[in-house]
Amino acid sequence: MAAHPARNVTADEIATFERDGAVALKGVYQPEWIDLLRDGVDVAMATSDRYSRRIQGEGEPVFFTDYIAWKRVEQIKRFALEGPAAELGAQIMRSSKANFLFDGVFVKEPGTTKPSTWHQDQPYYCVQGQQIVVLWAPLDPCPASVSLQCVKGSHTWGKSFRPIKFKDGSDFGRDAADGYIDPPDVEREYADRIVAWDLEPGDVIAFHGMTMHGAPGNPGPHRRRATNTTWVGDDGIYIQRPGVMEPDFPDCGLKPGDPIDSAYFPRVFEARV
Ligand SMILES: O=C(O)CCC(=O)C(=O)O
After folding, report:
1. Measured from the CB, is residue 86 less than 6 Å from ligand 1?
2. Could you tell me if the CB of 64 is within 6 A of ligand 1?
3. CATH number, residue 30
4. How far apart are the CA of 104 and the centre of ligand 1, in A?
5. What residues contact residue 136 under an 8 Å CB cut-off, 6+ apart?
6. Ligand 1 pocket, residue 104 CB under 6 Å
7. Could you list the residue range(s) of the whole structural domain that residue 141 is in?
8. Ligand 1 contact via 147 beta carbon (within 6 Å)
9. Which atom of ligand 1 is closest in space to residue 104's alpha carbon?
């Protein structure tokens, strides 16, 4: 059985998540899990797989991103399968179970200017449903000026924005004819709805799979390491999207319409009946 979070999510936090599509959960991961994730990030950066990338601008300090690192990094695997995230995800989604979809690693070394592009996560990959939550966890003290930012209420817009690559702005072959529209200029059009928090290690931003989010560069003198885990609840199904899905799971064995609930996407938390 996986570990419990340091505390339960409150009814107010669930209400905020459902209304705004994002909520900061303070003090939910115990320090030993943060230490484990920091070790895992070191291993992820020292090794590589098909989604490990250094996407900083020319001559800049490293901006490292990675997906599905849990397949090669024991520490991230242990966190995902034995740590407190699954139960936290189920609580915030009000789901009877939480299946682990994948992890992400985002390291911005001091002096990185490249932002993490504004985007929604779900249009990148193979899942559809309302009960999809991303748990983003800083591993360093993280003031709002360099932290993840979310656009309040964007998960209810009913729009799928064309996913694009952080590195060069290229896309994945989904366009208007497929129902994917160009993302708005968030800072100009939705400045009054952008929300960000001052965070410490142990805090988590829980955001909905359709919430628009991004992050500025890290111009200051401190590292900004973060990992996320994505969780799928009762209503999440596998779908195929036009073009390239990222990350993709070619060997997952699921067909469109199948529940995301198999050994490949393990059910890490299940409520007791
Ligand atoms: O940490 C970042 O800079 C970006 C994170 C992100 O886009 C995500 O968690 O989906």
Report:
1. no
2. no
3. 2.60.120.620
4. 8
5. 148, 204, 205, 206, 207, 226, 227, 228
6. yes
7. 11-266
8. no
9. 9
Q: Residue 88: which residues within 8 A CB-CB, separation 6 or more?
A: 5, 9, 25, 28, 135, 204, 206
Note whether residue 66 is domain-resident: yes
174 in a structural domain: yes
pLDDT at site 272? 84
Q: Using the atom order of ligand 1, give the atom closest to the CA of residue 108.
A: 3
CA of 225 to the centre of ligand 1 (A): 10
* Residue 273 located in a structural domain: no
Does ligand 1 lie within 6 Å of residue 226's CB atom?
yes
Distance 217 CA to ligand 1 centre (A): 11
What per-residue confidence (pLDDT) applies to 168? 87
Sign of CA dihedral 83, 88, 89, 94: positive
> In total, how many domains does the chain have?
1
Q: Which atom of ligand 1 is nearest to the CA of 226?
A: 1
Six-digit token pair at 167? 């590195």
Residue 271 lies in a domain: no
> Does ligand 1 have an atom closer than 6 angstroms to the CB of 148?
yes
- In this prediction, residue 77 carries a pLDDT of 98
Nearest protein CA to atom 4 of ligand 1, as residue: 116
241 and 123 in contact (C-beta within 8 Å)? yes
Per-residue pLDDT tens listing for the chain (273 residues): 899 999 999 999 999 999 999 999 999 999 999 999 999 999 999 999 999 999 999 999 999 999 999 999 999 999 999 999 999 999 999 999 999 999 999 999 999 999 999 999 999 999 999 999 999 999 999 999 999 999 999 999 999 999 999 888 888 999 899 999 999 999 999 999 999 999 999 999 999 999 999 999 999 999 999 999 999 999 999 999 999 999 999 999 999 999 999 999 999 999 987
How remote is the CA of residue 118 from the centroid of ligand 1, in Å?
9
Tokens in use for 66? Answer: 């990675």
- The predicted pLDDT at position 169 comes to 87
Report d(CA 9, CA 18) in Å as an integer. Answer: 13
